[in-house]
Structure formats: C-alpha cells, structure tokens
Specification:
Structural class: mainly alpha
Distance between the termini: 10 Å
Order of helices and strands: HEEEHHEEHHEHHEEEHEHHEEHHEEH
Largest sheet: 3 strands, antiparallel
CATH class: Mainly Alpha
Number of domains: 1
Helix content: 55-70%
Number of strands: 14
CATH architecture: Alpha/alpha barrel
Radius of gyration: 20 Å
Strand content: 5-15%
CATH topology: Glycosyltransferase
Strand order of the largest sheet: 2-1-14
Number of helices: 13
Length: 389
C-alpha cells in the first residue's frame, strides 16, 4: 500500500498538475483553456464556467491542503479573477460559457456553473482570506438552494405539468458542496442541508425494490417512472455520490450511513461492470431496454476514477475485503487504459472495448478536475490506510 500511495502522489504532482499549469493558463486574458489535444495544444479557446470553477477549486484546495506553493495559488487567483469579472451577469447568475476574452456565449441555464463557482470561491477564500471571495461563495450557494425545485429555471425545456421529474445530480452534488464550504456556513443550517441531501440520495433515489441501485430521475412524489428518463442509470454518478455520503457519515459519526454507502458502491459496480470487455458502462436502462444515449457503452475516465475513491474509502472505513478486491480490479483497468504512458494527463473517452476514442486531454466536459482530484483522494486514502496499519 505504501508503494501504491507513492504511485498516486507522483502521478499527481509530477505529471498531471504540471500539465495543467503549463498548458491551460491563459496568461493574456485570464482563466484557463480546457480544449487541449494529446500534447496540450489548444484546439478551441471557448471557456466553460464549470470547468473554470473546477480548476480554481483544484489549485486552491491543493494550496490549502497539500503545500502552500505560490505557483498553485497564482494559478487559482488568475482563474478566480477571470470568473469574478466575467463569469456572471452581475447578480451571480453564472453563464455556461464565454469567449476567450470573457464575453458571454451561453446564458446561465446550467446549475453546475453555480455549484462549481461556489466551490471555487469557497476554497479560494480559505487560501487568501479574501472576504469578497467568501461572500461570492455564500451568495451563490444560496442561489443554488433556491433553485433545487427547478434548477434550470425559465431555461427548462420541459412542458409544465405533464411529466414532472426530479434529477439525482443536484442533491448528489450538494452532499459534497455542503462540506466543501462548511467553514462559511452556520452549523445549524449546514446540518439541515446535509440531512436533506442524505434523505434525497439514500431514501429517494436509492431504490431497495430494485435491489439497491440508484436511479437518475424519479417523479416529484418519489415514485418510479417507466420512461427513458425514469429508467436511466448512470453507475459512475451513483458511485461518486457514495464517497460523498461516506464523507458525511464520517463527519456525522454515522457508521450505518457509511456501511450503506459502501454496500451501494458494490451493488452499482456489480450492476454496471461490462462482463465481456471490462470497464464500467456509462449509461444503462434499469429494465434492460435501449437507452436514448448513443454513448451508453463508452468507458469514461471520471466513472472509473470516482469508483477508485469510493472503494478505497469503503475499505478504510469498513474493512470490506470485497471493496479492496474491486479496487484492485478497477485500478488495473484504469491505469492500463486511461493513463497515457507517453504524454501527461489521461485519456477521457474509450469505446466499449477499451480503445481510445478521442485524441484529447481536455474539452467541453473534461478539465482539470476528476483526474487530479481522484489521484489526490486515492493518495490520501492510501496514506490513512497505511497509518492505520
């Protein structure tokens, strides 16, 4: 385990972080390029707010928790200032994307622009002590909570009143977001928010009658919907949520919650594993019907990396040998398929057989987040496991 901890640490500090520091920073206009080819060349200069926020968060977090490196803080600050100036409409309604110079391209329809702005300015405020950054984080978090019933607001394309479904993604991300900005929140408010999120994830979207799997959408009353959206499963989403829940279980001293999350991780892996070619499916239908998503059988980087985190947390917190065995299996698949041995950073998109689909290291959806966060989380979990031994 000690060698494994060093493996994750060295990959993070010596290959992945230098890639983003060197290749992604826009020194002329601020913010970050995320559309990067295999070697880090920029192939598109549009800037996506949620990826900008994720990178500000990443370098702020590492500065706060790993080492107070000036280059990390400088990277976070220049991205944070770009977001502060150009990322919203003046009332903290965060756009989806901007031109390179910071002109709005897509209106503020995406709730995850808001959630990752909250995370970004929360960590940046801790790194700098800047009260304005803390205020941006708290005010944006309030807006996120005000949108829980209709995250897209008037940008919602669904016809009102016909099929009212609620989605797993927001309560799932709030489980993590609440802990991320805990230092900025009132204790009673924090606990109420956490309790609501736990209830939604573990009692509404987790379905015992389906064998303990998590669905992506339910009716407003919590019932299942026999529709494309209602049958949709995203194993990676569910598994990522389970390490958020385990973190909350630790924070609250709830072993029952940790155990349930660990078991749900195993259930989703058993359900989502491709027994023919290996790897975890991207999307599935709970009744085995064809999905709407044509990319359903692709193998994505973040799905596998988030699974590694959940399995290591489950092993550390419960001692589950089954979690350790699954970790070893997914570790082998992930490092042999997603890691580019020739150039830094990892592949994002594989076909079902595990062949690289897109010759890129970043784009509209992949930025400086899941790979470095996963390497950091696994490194830290392995260090804790070694210390416990």
């Amino acid at each position: 385990m000690k060698e494994l901890a060093l493996k994750y640490r060295d990959e993070l500090l010596e290959r992945v972080l230098p890639f983003w520091l060197e290749k992604s920073q826009d020194k002329e206009y601020g913010g970050y390029f995320t559309c990067l080819d295999r070697r880090g060349g920029v192939f598109d200069t549009d800037k996506f707010i949620w990826l900008q926020g994720r990178q500000v968060w990443m370098f702020s977090m590492l500065y706060n928790k790993v080492e107070r490196r000036q280059e990390w803080l400088d990277c976070a600050l220049q991205g944070g200032e770009f977001l502060r100036k150009y990322g919203h409409d003046g009332n903290l309604n965060w756009y989806f994307s901007l031109t390179r110079e910071g002109r709005p391209l897509v209106e503020p329809y995406n709730i995850f622009s808001y959630t990752f702005a909250t995370m970004a300015f929360g960590q940046l405020s801790l790194a700098t002590g800047n009260a304005e950054y803390a205020d941006i984080a708290k005010r944006t978090f309030d807006i996120v909570l005000s949108k829980t019933d209709n995250p897209k607001g008037h940008w919602n394309k669904a016809y009102p009143g016909t099929r009212n479904l609620k989605n797993f993604a927001l309560p799932m991300i709030l489980c993590n977001l609440a802990l991320e900005i805990e230092p900025l929140l009132d204790e009673d408010f924090l606990i109420r928010t956490i309790d609501t999120c736990i209830h939604e994830v573990m009692e509404v979207f987790l379905r015992p009658e389906l064998g303990g799997i998590i669905v992506e959408n339910v009716e407003l009353d919590g019932s299942l919907s026999d529709t494309f959206d209602g049958r949709l499963l995203n194993p990676g989403h569910a598994i990522e949520a389970m390490w958020f829940i385990m973190d909350l279980g630790e924070r609250l001293g709830r072993k029952d919650l940790i155990e349930k999350a660990a078991q749900t991780t195993l259930r989703m892996l058993e359900y989502g594993w491709d027994k023919q070619y290996g790897g975890i499916f991207y999307f599935m239908d709970r009744l085995g019907h064809p999905t709407q998503q044509l990319e359903w059988d692709q193998k994505l980087w973040w799905v596998h990396i988030e699974s590694l985190i959940s399995l290591l947390k489950a092993y550390r917190l419960t001692g589950s040998q089954e979690s350790l065995q699954w970790f070893e299996k997914i570790h082998d698949y992930t490092w042999s398929h997603f890691r580019d041995a020739e150039y830094p950073e990892w592949w994002g998109y594989l076909d079902r057989r595990g062949q690289v689909l897109l010759d890129l290291k970043g784009g509209k959806w992949k930025g400086c987040f899941h790979v470095p966060r996963g390497l950091y989380q696994c490194w830290q979990e392995l260090e804790k496991i070694n210390a416990n031994r």
